[in-house]
Amino acid sequence: MKTIIAYLSEIFEKAFVACGYEKEYGKVTVSNRPDLCQFQCNGAMAGAKRYKKSPLQIAQEVVEHVDKAPFEKVEVVAPGFINLVLKDEEILKAAVAIHEDKDFGLNKVSDETVVVDYGGPNIAKPLHVGHLRSAIIGESVKRLAKVLGYRAIGDVHLGDWGLQMGLIITEFAEQNPESKYLDDRYDGEYEPLAISMDDLNEIYPRASKRSKVDEEYMARAQQATFDLQHGRRGYMALWREIVRISVADLKANYEKLNVSFEYWYGESDSEKYIPDMIAEFIEKGYAYESEGALVVDVAKPEDKAPMPPVLVRKSNGSQIYATTDLATIKQRMQDFHPSMILYFVDNRQGLHFEQVFRCARKTGLVSEDVVLEFDGFGTMNGKDGKPYKTRDGGVMKLRDLIDNVCAAALEKMEEAKTGLELSEEEKKETALKVGISALKFGDLINYRAKDYIFDLDKFMSFEGKTGPYMLYTIVRLNSILTKAKEKGFEIGTLGLPKTDVEREVLLKTILMNEVFWQAFSDRAPSGICENAYQIASLANRFYYENKILSEENEERRGELLAFCEYVLRILKLHMEILAIDVPERM
RNA sequence: GUGCCUGUAGCUCAGCAGGAUAGAGCAACGGCCUUCUAAGCCGUUGGCCGGACGUUCGAAUCGUCUCAGGCACACCA
User: What are phi and psi for residue A151, nearest 5 degrees?
Assistant: First the structure.
């Protein structure tokens, strides 16, 4: 379907060409002065210098040649703006086309695969607030990609293969020296590991702390990492158990956030690609030894800053994250043939990924036409501007954060005396949805790449530009439609806008395609949030201005109901992309 | 030291393929519930867009410099 901007631009491009000007000046944009017009074309001013004519003159000339059929108003204003107002019929036509299309009239790509790497949790470490962003931004961009026609594949890329595993094994050995898993000569079956996630969560911090002060301990952990990566039987079995316990816990937590992955691959899954890959690097002369380690040069002459070589094998023979990241690229290229691999990872890993990408291209792991993109996100800081910490200085676990926000949502329900007809169980479920919406919307509305201040109180206020506002809008529209159905009212068809609000809503919705594509090319859901809010805000005004169910004129009532249905569908699409669940009532 | 990111209202943030009066939300103040969920709606107050210079008919937006904060710079991920 042709989008409204493309349609209008085409009309003006034709007019510019008809007057002997370049086509590019005909670009039509959304007005930045909604009080004056809906759309504008500024090409006359841009072309003034080139054609040595006054902008006003060009604008007038172009306007004479323009097809004015779709417009209510085409006006030339000093110093050379062309202001446009569409006929209501045109707006309605575009909205109806969207409403009648199951894909909302969006432009879609076909036959393209995008791999989205997000989540990135570590085995045996609890999810904390820092993991929130990667998970929900990645999930949202993945869903957006699907809506835009891509085959989108999410891969969690578990941190399950590095030194951390050696540290965990070493600490486990400290606590369970008799364990069969550690016995090199044991060749029988292993008992399932009877430790809880909470136990596991204790192990890593202790090991990490000790490794920083105890060199001998660190050496053992390095050795354990090496042994694991080289397939020591007991360690492998122990590792599998730890992964099993961890992944079950991770899945439960991600599920609460509506985050799901097509693949639960870990760094370890790239292991089988590593030997061949390294051998090839050496054979083709890309990799060489430096200070005992194996490295690949990735510096380019145009680099402004020194670019260190990538380490693909440590001096002790162990793999490092560049190794697994490279091997993972190899795996993804082989299995998925993507045109794009997007990484939603903390900004601080930017240099690392730049190195990995350069290495992947240099060694031919990926061809030039495949997009490898690091889409970093900023740090969630506390009010003091430092990374967010709990009152006692610890890292806030994601689970605790979710519990806090959802408890506040439940409190709010009591306070507002809503959901009285719901059972305790349903109330809790609703509070969970409301709380999660607050958390997710509050995070997603911040531009991806920027650090932002995490304010728990703000997440729990539920007023204004928040997730609960979005849900509230949807719930109220839903409620009208449900009641209309009960009363046996007919839902009509969309009609010409009768009020400013209706016109504005329709205008907003017919620009959805542009907004979605912009958000996707930014790899940033914040644009979706903003658009959803603006539509919701208009919807609330519409709700206030019209008494729909008591509307006596049957035809008008049908139109209003159709309008509710249309807006509701569009708002739900936005929530679907943001992966925010909507309750029936709240 | 070098590189990258950020600096917009009291607070949190949009706007940055240059365009006509810089927008929201929160906070503050004032209105709107016998009628579809007031977690809502309407209004008022609040800004030399860090600073300087430059490019341009036009700069929050582009360039250079500068100040302030954050982050990263091979054997952690």
Answer: -85, 110
On whether the CB atoms of residues A585 and A430 are closer than 8 A, the answer is yes
Q: For this complex, say whether ipTM is above 0.90.
A: yes
Average of per-residue pLDDT values in chain A: 93
In sequence order, what DSSP letters do the residues of A36-48 get, joined into one string?
T-SEEE-HHHHHH
The upper half-sphere exposure of residue A81, i.e. CA atoms within 13 Å in the direction of its Cβ, equals 14
Query: Is strand B within 7 Å of residue A316 (CB)?
Result: yes
Contacts of A325 (CB under 8 A, 6+ apart): A270, A352, A353, A356
- Given CATH 3.40.50.620, say whether it is the number of domain A132-159+265-374: yes
Hey, how many other C-beta atoms are within 10 angstroms of the C-beta on A378? 16
Give ranges for CATH 3.40.50.620 in chain A.
132-159+265-374
Residues contacting residue A433 through CB under 8 Å, at least 6 positions apart: A471, A581, A582, A583, A586
Give the distance, in angstroms, between residue A34 CA and nucleotide B31 C1'. 26
Q: How confident is the model at residue A392 (pLDDT cuts 50, 70, 90)?
A: confident
Which of chain B's bases lie under 7 Å from a protein CB?
2-6, 11-15, 17, 19-21, 24-27, 35-42, 56-58, 69-77
The distance (Å) linking the CA of A345 with the C1' of B53 is: 38
Q: A91-137, pLDDT tens digit by residue?
A: 999 999 999 999 999 999 999 999 999 999 999 888 988 899 999 99
- CATH 1.10.730.10 residue ranges in chain A? 392-586
Nearest to A446 by CA among A518, A538, A381: A381
CATH code assigned to A4-86: 3.30.1360.70
C-alpha distances (whole Å) from A169 to each of A70, A228, A347 are 71, 9, 30
Give the mean pLDDT of A309-337.
Answer: 95
Q: What are the tens digits of pLDDT across the range A181-239?
A: 999 899 999 999 988 998 998 999 899 999 989 999 999 999 999 999 999 999 999 99
Q: pLDDT tens across A351-381, in order?
A: 999 999 999 999 999 999 999 999 999 888 8
Q: Which of A309, A305, A316 has its CA nearest to residue A281?
A: A309
Q: How far is the CA of A249 from the C1' of B22 (A)?
A: 47
- For A392-586, CATH gives 1.10.730.10
Share of chain A above pLDDT 90, in %: 83
Nucleotide nearest to A47 (CA to C1'): B57
By DSSP bridging, strand A380-381 and strand A452-453 are parallel
Q: Which nucleotide is nearest to A430 (CA to C1')?
A: B39
In whole angstroms, B73 C1' to A86 CA is 54
